[in-house]
């Protein structure tokens, strides 16, 4: 299953000048626990903001300008090719982790969206794309100190 996972501020921000505008240990722990052991797909800018591959996950970078292949690291020039690679490997779950352009492209492939909605608005220059209304059911999964966790599933499921 293709799962989009994102932390999003109250006003839709996901990034500011190449960084996350908040620092939530609680949300990072949730992200790590959820994605560990599964491949993560991200754009080049997201990868560069991390500074290194995420441990215990195959890191798949989508970029037309860089070609990275190494230990737990692969790159493809399109999201579709990255997803096809994961399907061939028969991964149970594949997480799309950003950024804005990748999230926008990934909505058509996703079987689930997990949004950690931060409880505050933040300033930023990258926003999470609008989730098409009528196509997704939104459900509150859990409340944390810094964020509320929402799960979106396609309507009809």
What's the overall average pLDDT, rounded?
Answer: 94
Read across the widest sheet, the strand sequence of neighbours is: 5-4-3-6-1-7-10-9
Count every helix, treating DSSP H or I runs of 4 or more residues as helices: 4
CATH H-level name... which superfamily?
A: Dihydrofolate Reductase, subunit A
Radius of gyration: 15 Å
Give unreliable regions as ranges: none
What string, H for helix and E for strand, traces the elements in order? Answer: EEHEHEEHEHEEEE
> What percent of the residues sit in helical stretches (DSSP H or I)?
10-25%
Any guess at the CATH architecture?
3-Layer(aba) Sandwich
- Supply the number of structural domains: 1
Strand tally is 10
Describe the structure.
The structure is a single chain. This protein has 157 residues and is α/β, with parallel strands linked by helices. The chain has a single domain, classed as 3-Layer(aba) Sandwich (Dihydrofolate Reductase, subunit A), CATH 3.40.430. Helix content is 22%, strand content 33%. The chain is built from 4 helices and 10 strands; from the N terminus they run ββαβαββαβαββββ. An 8-stranded mixed sheet has the order 5-4-3-6-1-7-10-9, sandwiched between helices. The chain has a two-stranded antiparallel sheet with strand order 2-8. The longest helix has 11 residues.
What is the compact description of this entry?
This protein has 157 residues and is of the alpha/beta class. Helices cover 22% and strands 33% of the residues. A hairpin with a 3-residue loop joins strand 9 and strand 10 (147-154).
């Amino acid at each position: 299953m293709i799962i989009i996972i994102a932390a999003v501020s109250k006003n839709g921000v996901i990034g500011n000048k190449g960084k996350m505008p908040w620092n939530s240990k609680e949300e990072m722990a949730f992200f790590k626990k959820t994605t560990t052991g599964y491949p993560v797909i991200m754009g080049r800018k997201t990868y560069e903001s991390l500074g290194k591959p995420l441990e215990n996950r195959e890191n798949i970078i989508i970029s037309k300008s860089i070609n990275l292949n190494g230990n737990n690291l692969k790159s493809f020039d399109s999201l579709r090719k990255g997803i096809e690679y994961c399907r061939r490997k028969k991964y149970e779950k594949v997480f799309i982790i950003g950024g804005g352009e990748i999230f926008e492209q990934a909505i058509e492939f996703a079987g689930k969206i997990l949004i950690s909605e931060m409880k505050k608005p933040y300033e930023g220059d990258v926003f999470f794309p609008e989730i098409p209304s009528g196509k997704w059911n939104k459900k509150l999964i859990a409340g944390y100190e810094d964020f509320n966790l929402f799960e979106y599933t396609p309507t009809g499921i």
